[in-house]
Amino acid sequence: MRWIVGLLACLLPAAAAPNLLRGGDGESREGWGGDVTWTTAAGAAHSGQGCWQGQVTKSDTHQRLTQNVELQPDVLYELSFWARADNQNSIVLWLQQGQERFNPTRWAAVPATWRRYSATFSPPSAGTWELQLIVPTGHGDAPLGRAWVDDLSLLALTTGRVTPLSQTGEIADHASVAAGPDGSVYAAWEQFAADRDQLVVARLDTANGLAPLQRWSCDLGAASFTLWPRLVSGPGGVWLLAAAEQNQRWDIVARLVTAAGVGEPVWITQDAAADSRVAGCVDAAGLQVAWQSNRGGQRRIWTTTVTGRQVAAPVAVSPDSSYNPSVLRRGSETWIAYDHFADGNRDIYLVSARDGQWAAPRQLTRSNRHDLLPQLVWWRDGLWLAWEFGFHAGYNICSLETKSVQLAQIRDHGLAAPVGLPNGLPGRWIEQPALAVDGLDRLWLGYRQPRGDEGRGGWETRLGCYNGQAWTADTLVSPAVGRARQAPLAAVPEGLLVPAMADNVGNQWSTNEQATTASFQRVAVALVSPTAAPPAADLQTGPLNDADLPSFALQSERRRMGEERAPFTFELAGRRLTARWGNFHEHSDISQCRRALDSRTEEDYIWMREIANIDFGAITDHCYNQSPPVWRYSQKITRASHDPGQFVAFVGEEWTSNNEKTTKPPGFYGHRNLIFADPYCPYWLNSKDPLYYTPQQVWDKLAGQDFIMIPHQLADAGTNVPVDWNYTNEVTQPVAEIFQARESYEADECPRRTKQGFPGYFLQDVWRRGIKIGVIASPDHGGGKGKAGVLVETLDRGPILDACRARATWGTSAGKIALALAVDWKLMGSAVVQPEVRPVRVTAKVSAAGPLAAVRVIRNNEIVYNHTVTDPDVQFEWLDNAPPVGNAYYYLRVERQDSELAWSSPVWIDRQG
Length: 913
What we know:
There is one protein chain. This protein is mainly β. Strands 43, 44, 45, 46, 47, 48, 52, 53, 56, 58, 59, 61, 62 and 63 form a 14-stranded mixed sheet that branches. A five-stranded antiparallel sheet has the order 1-4-9-6-7, with no helix packed on it. A hairpin with a 4-residue loop joins β61 and β62. The model is unreliable at 1-15 and 660-666 (pLDDT under 50).
């Protein structure tokens, strides 16, 4: 039976919906458990005679209010309650079924007066779940004190039901939908298999709830991997497009889909370059395909046409630093929209062709923000565009503090905005736009929006409608949440087809085995009736006005940091070494802690390559948020983002040993990043798993792998724990993060010291103990705040890791301060054996991209020489005529006038006897 999603009723509770919680009105304790207390003190309750009260007096403790409830995964629930607290306390919501737990949200800084709170969620599976309201929590940096809750309600909200596409036990991703010219309706998606990816296509029965009539698996062979499949339809048929990797090469493949099945592969590209992010359109003339490629070492947009099985020679239609094409063709005209970086800013461009002759690109957006992911559609005899835009907070270049979606009509003189949507959709985090025109001549915009605090609950799929004069309030397509994947739309006579994704990626897994068996990724499809939206009306638009949009000084900051400066070289002992910059510590939307703030995995690499202009990078999401499909997806994105000789992409993870328990002061083993040379490394290691609980267990497991481990947050005494320096290894753990977004871990007293530092765990303390470890810096969250520097002869994975193992490295706070240090003609990181005490020659070269305040030579943690200079470029020698009798180590600290810092790895002098 066909089902319909009602637009206006989608998020409203059903009439007289029952409260699913027993005793939720606060007048009864029926059904409740936990360790909070019931109080009937005068004036304590929000309403009635009594309420619940919890109190924590020690850190890392909490009190729970619990009740068992029966839940269904295809239902959206809303928990609401009133709360107050005496010390800006935090309240957390968990749901647990057996060993599986998920955390829809938390509420910080609960005020002293009563305030209503609510959260929406859908469970990953059906059955009895224990609802756990933590009232309050004392974990992490949450304040201690008391909190009260009252008038608790759990309602089932009215939403449409979705039809599953993937089957039980299958791991699926990236769904797309299309309507064929013969009236058939199709869906396609990626499916995770043991040693390969498969593309799956289903023909759907629109008369029977979209149940699959037929299903085909498109296997491209052993060790094949795919990204971003897309169905496109037109008079010529429905084509399945995807980026496919075979033999370590990414190409674009197309397959024609009909009711008879899926045709043989047509390889659009067969080139050594990484071709990905494909888009296409079909008309009577054939298939037009556009994609992004790193041919020639730079990311550009390429396009070609396919007639039958004949592929025309591809042509580049954009300048360097271009991404995310969308293509549309009508008659003799073709348009391709894409986003392009220039001067550190990202804008939307349009290139067009008539009869195959391409014109010069045209810049469509010019606002002081990032505009990306354009989508084109033809409506009302005009070309329409939707795109995602966002802003950084300061120099957090891999994090968009605000994201939204803009809709506009492309005109000869510029962009025209629909009435009622002058500055994009309202909301803080809205992304991944998709467009379609329905049979009633209205324009529909699909997008993803995170649910819960900082998107920890995952992303919802939503729809809005523009009828020419008014924007219809958004519609929730499915109660399930999933990754921030685009949900392409397809118009059919019955309404709109919308794919939906569900997963539990936001969970924290206790073991690798649990992540393998309990994690899921599902795809489904909804048929949305357009009847509730207002009828089509005459078009009303106005000029797109972004004058009142917030701005950020990204271009000036990039100049201050020196992001576009010329390469720095250093010659020593006949070797010519080049300074290369990187980021070994960045999170994406895989990590639960800041899912909505941190960029999508593929976007992180773009920010690194384009804004920071660095040479190498790694996405190091938390190990306990990984699962086999997540790990595989990260690896695919990493390989597709690798530009040989230009940008080196590393597979990595954060091995996060936390303070869930305090078995020994000050906690467990600390946070360390694993960086792998092999972009196909078959497994990740979970620090919560007893098999990989200590650093030594990790090193033993990875014996034979080419990797390094990098400690960070070295002396953290805040929400995390300091590094346990009893685990050292000069080969597997050769460098440590001296600086990141939490500032400097150089010493207990140092410039820009971290606010939360535990004495005895800073790098100077480590060196004092005789541990030989070099330095890098990397940001952790948000990019920009910390860079790793290496001196190498060749830009590739192996030489970069070898430079780290040789400790030929340095770190900076943010600015590109290049430096090299040699002691007795031995490069930084070296351990020099010196049989006797004699003068020590220190040679330094610095290029700071900004006025210097001082270059300091530090020996055994004491400043022994100040080279005070303002020139950004300096080279000097200093002779230490009075070195200490025992062993010694020397390193540089560079200080710019604007407080930007850099530190070299030390050179150690080991004196025998």
